[in-house]
Amino acid sequence: MNIIIARNKAEFDKAAAAVISRQIKKKPDSVLGLATGSTPMGMYSELARMYEKGELDFSKVITFNLDEYIGLHRSHPQSYCYFMHENLFDKINIKEENVNLLDGGASDSQGECEEYEKKIKAVGGIDLQVLGMGHNGHLGFNEPKTPFESITGLVDLTPGTIKANSRFFESVAEVPRRAMSMGMKTILHAKSILFIVSGSEKAEVVAKALKGPVTPEIPASVLQLHPFITVVLDEEAAKYL
Ligand code: F6R
User: Fold this and answer.
1) Active site residues
2) Domain of 142?
């Protein structure tokens, strides 16, 4: 496990973007697994900046996002589809047909998840999976106690995650209660992983995830079992390591 501890936000974003940039330069048709949330936003800005400067080419890159709320149409400002276009896809030269996102408005959500899992396999699997982590150690929307064998499927959000995510909505009541998420097994099957966490409020769970027992109680602890993982933390998140 390669752990990078950034001294400030700019260093954090650059270190994370550098891992993705190296992957794309090594394999221009890389399959990237992507995450949403506050943590990767600066990294996405940095990638967009690199594209603008002609340092990166996304024309052959394929992406799969980790998760999506059920019930939010792709055009909803809080959908992860909207987030990805706003923060990255609309700023780079990725081809729309190479962008894969679970459809929160699909009439058959279970079928949508099964199709997604097949699509990932059809392109040969994910080369580099970007992961943030929730306050309870969740990965994607895989909440504590999710079996490590889970594949892409439907999940109920915990009250803690609903509350944490309500900061992006007008009220807690508006936060969807269900989501679709890549499973733990799907995530672990990625050939390499970039795990990014910042902020002192996640310091305790970072220590549990990286140094504690490997247990479904802390979903991110499973990452200890992955042979190719780069961890980018800021000093606050790393303070109990
Ligand atoms: C989002 C996702 C989530 C977030 C996690 C941290 O696609 O997969 O697991 O990574 O909730 O979110 P932030 O970065 O907002 O703290």
Assistant:
1) 67, 136, 138, 143
2) 8-225
The CATH number of the domain where 203 resides is what? 3.40.50.1360
Compute the distance from residue 135 Cα to the ligand 1 centre, in Å.
Answer: 9
Whether 34 is in a domain gets the answer yes
The pLDDT of residue 10 is 97
Query: Does residue 132 line the site of ligand 1, with CB under 6 A?
Result: yes
Q: Is 143 in the pocket of ligand 1 (CB under 6 A)?
A: no
Ranges of residues in the chain whose predicted pLDDT is under 70? none
Predicted pLDDT of residue 13: 98
Alpha-carbon distance 102 to 152, whole Å? 10
What predicted TM-score, i.e. pTM, was given to this entire model? 0.97
Instruction: Output the pLDDT for position 225.
Output: 96
The pLDDT of residue 183 is 97
- The answer to whether position 88 is within a domain reads yes
Q: Give the number of domains in the chain.
A: 1
